[in-house]
Fold this protein.
Amino acid sequence: MTHLRPFVLGIETSCDETAVAIVAADGHLFAHHVLSQIDEHAAFGGVVPEIAARSHITHLDKLIQSALDDAEMDVRDLDAIAATMGPGLIGGLMVGVITAKAIAKAANIPFIAVNHLEGHALTVRLSHNVPFPFLLLLVSGGHCQLLEVAGVGDYTRLGSTIDDAVGEAFDKTAKLLGLPYPGGPAVEQAALKGDALRFKLPRPLLQNDTCDFSFSGLKTAVRRVAEKCVAERGGLYRDDVNDICAAFQLAIGDCLVNRVGKAMKKFDNKHPDASSPTLVVAGGVAANIALKSRLNEVAHEGGYTMIAPALDLCTDNGAMIAWAGLERLRAGALDDSDMIPRPRWPLDETAKPLVGSGRKGSKV
Ligand code: KG4
Ligand code: ZN
């Protein structure tokens, strides 16, 4: 079967996944490889930037070759190469971008710089027919944002975290409770067996009338509850951990549902004609079945259809970068070889940095 051009190879190295994919304009995935570094970072309870960069160097070339082999292609069969230019860990970004630029130059095809968040934002269109504009909830280890996606390169940030990303809150909570990294799946499993009402945890920022998030107070509250258990029972028992996880996940769910509700109202006011608007949920936290089902409910109540792309497209991967590169190419992007990696690169450049976002702009 012939597939629709352009064919774009995408490289993702912004965090702890080395990933390469080749996509066609009809959404066909010729190749889709994701190499996770979780085992290399697990002992540290989080991603170590230097280890991540070195691991990308070790694996990227071979991964690109096996993607080309899968697709039975030579680099000259490609129409463009895209790589994540930011935001992310600078060492990893440099590995991906330099490799992509070199291959693009040798093959005489354009190099397209992709914002990692744009990759998450547009990927749903690779697998589903979702027209612009749509509402996006991006919830991963590095990001926690609500965005209005009006077109390629046209994003308005409706809300963002002022401290931790939601996946980061799961990871830190897991670490505190002695659960393995990454924390999300471990906390979700423990929560299934727990009593969510035994402990009362805060819902930060809910009294404030924005779409912003805050999770660091929740993390501190989890620490206090855990310390209290230890003081009262002489240790943290399995049922304590399960109950804390259940209470934590309930609190996170309440925050997400509340903020999404507010964002839908903002979106509706701006797009009163959108007859059946879509809420897209992307990022690793979208793997959480309990949270997804609560989000589905609130979307439904607001007259929205909720779509979460397949998990392997929701978590960091090369297809999302290839696809965003392809959409940018179709929208007229030429060649970004003169651009250099940007560890901080907000999708909505007009959005003001929030508290705690750092001197050079928002991290997440
Ligand atoms: O999108 P992703 O693979 O990488 C980035 O951070 O960009 O997301 C990873 C994050 C981690 O923080 C992980 O703990 C979280 O997603 N996660 C989950 C679940 N599975 C992964 N969080 C909650 N529940 C889950 N089932
Ligand atoms: Zn990501």
User: Anything to note?
Assistant: Residues 116, 120, 140, 142-143, 316 surround zinc ion (ligand 2) (CB under 6 Å). The two ends are 41 Å apart (CA to CA).
